[in-house]
Amino acid sequence: MDALLTGLGLALQPENLVYAVVGVLLGTAVGVLPGIGPAMTVALLLPVTYNVSPSAALIMFAGIYYGGMYGGSTTSILLNTPGESSSVITALEGNKMAKTGRAAQALATAAIGSFVAGTISTVLLVALAPTVAEWVVVLGAPSYFAMMLLALVAVTSVLGSSKLRGFIALALGLAIGLVGTTTGQARLTFGNPLLADGIDIVVVAVAIFAVGEALWVAAHLRRRPLEVIPVGRPWMDREDWGRSWKPWLRGTAYGFPFGALPAGGAEMPTFLSYITERRLAGKHRAEFGKGAIEGVAGPEAANNASAAGTLVPLLAIGLPTTATAAVILAAMQGYGLQPGPQLFEAEPELVWTLLASLFVANTLLLVINLPMAPLWAKLLRLPRPYLYAGILFFAVLGAYSVNFQWFDVALLGLFGVLGFAMRRFGLPVLPLIVGVILGPRLEEQLGQALQLSRGDVSALWSEPVAVIVYAVIVALLLGPLVLRLIPGRQGPERLEDEVESLEEEVRS
Amino acid sequence: MTVVVGWTADARGRAALERGAHEARAHGEPLLVVNATTGTSTVDDRFAGEQDVADVQTLLDSLGIEAEVRQPVVRDVTDALLDIAEEVDASVLVIGIRHRSPVGKLLMGSTAQKILLDARCAVLAVKAADGSR
């Protein structure tokens, strides 16, 4: 508790406060704009880590992450196109509410629900992260190896329409992570000395997120403009509050654990929250599909709670479970910080300032989002060519500033084309970026484990935690297959299919 | 022969539309309402929504004018309007105009100027009733 108060004092220092404000403003902006997300923004801002203090940069990145969750809901509600993947479900009921003249209430329940969920989850994060860190600090290399393997398998196989596509993306990521001479011998360097130090994660992240997306948008530049629903200042009456607070809490209960597990961030909990609210709606059941406030309150709380949940494994174990978390991890590595249990020991001030700043960011977001949601929607009038010209400019600048080598800019172009191709062929981006970041660390843990056992492979399953984790991995991979084999029982459908059928059901 | 109106979903477009409807009725010609956009931003205020289009269609039908509303997504709004005017052999092209600041004109060019100079048919330029800029 003392540590948290000290952290709060540091987070409220003018410099850190300015970075928090910049972070939440940027985060809300990119959340509002479809196609641009917190992952891309943090990737583009990675070069600032060269001359900004670690705590300031991490405060800003956390602000962007939280802000993206808020901003996405504005676009979902007013435009019926999700600003973020985490707000897909919000559009179902939110836009219906807006069309029946209840946009103000939808925006209000989204913003206040996000605040409530964000605050509760941040409290949970503060309570849980140090405890988890204490548990995992005693674990050896074999257990870490197993947990990283689990993270890789989970982000690859739980999400997305096709496991094959997921594993292709993962293989690409691991291959990019292999480049270099860290192990003593040159791997995939093609005899090029510029590749000897490996490919900088800044270049890969910026290329995949920013350049790939810019090329994709350029290929689909002209689209029929959408109608934005005019709205005044968001507000709720007593009945709306009464109908909202339970979904907020239930949404939080879904969001936080799912964020903490490597199950792909916000999509799953928002979906589950929506289903639950529809089932529990009682006398308001008939309103679902026509704009039920519960269907906005629950999922919006869930997506913010999951953002906080994501930070538990990121800070306590060093495992990223979403694309944004993966890029934040890259930023921490850039500072030479080793996320994981040691972080709480080695950098208590940094950790607690970051945790305290989450409360600050969450409050700031409520203040800037509740009265100003209609203003944020004006950002949608920005012509895409200007927007993406700016993004490409910063992308090139960022890539060049890594080593001041033209070679990195060339790599940026190359991986940008890869990012475009992945979007074109429906390959998920998350496994690639997690592969690039975790791959080298996975190898390091493997090397350490085998060194201690003098090459005896059985050391990998010598720790009980490792064995349990391997069992989970096997269950994750074989579970769906086994379920499908049991006669008379349908295997669990993919999330996308369910969301699709849900959308159809709501539309009809 | 057709009366072509360059319509935008604002006061200026409204003025052009009213004048165009007047022309079409006076000469007994069909009316073609063109509401074009470059489609490069997610939201374009001058691009009419479904409700606006339906309202305009109902209004023109009630006036007994044979009217069609087109909403093309094009590279250049000016060129699209000129092409359509030529395609339907327009008798007159009605556009709404407004004041522009010199800097705005320098940066964005002037749609009205290009239409006035390049159109093969007569151009009728009208201003918004309330004189809004």
UniProtKB/TrEMBL annotation, chain A:
Would you say which domain of life the source belongs to?
A: Bacteria
Domain spans labelled DUF112: 17-433
Q: Which chain regions cross the lipid bilayer?
A: 106-129, 135-155, 167-186, 198-219, 311-331, 351-373, 385-403, 459-483
Q: Which UniProt keywords apply?
A: Membrane, Transmembrane, Transmembrane helix
Q: Which PANTHER family match?
A: TRICARBOXYLIC TRANSPORT PROTEIN
Name of the protein described by the UniProt record: Tripartite tricarboxylate transporter TctA
UniProtKB/TrEMBL annotation, chain B:
The protein's superkingdom reads Bacteria
UspA domain location, by residue?
Answer: 2-127
Q: Which Pfam families match?
A: Usp
Among InterPro entries, the record links this protein to: Rossmann-like_a/b/a_fold, Universal_stress_UspA, UspA
Concerning CDD domains, the annotation shows:
USP-like (cd00293)
What protein family does this chain belong to? Belongs to the universal stress protein A family.
Q: What is this protein called?
A: Universal stress protein UspA
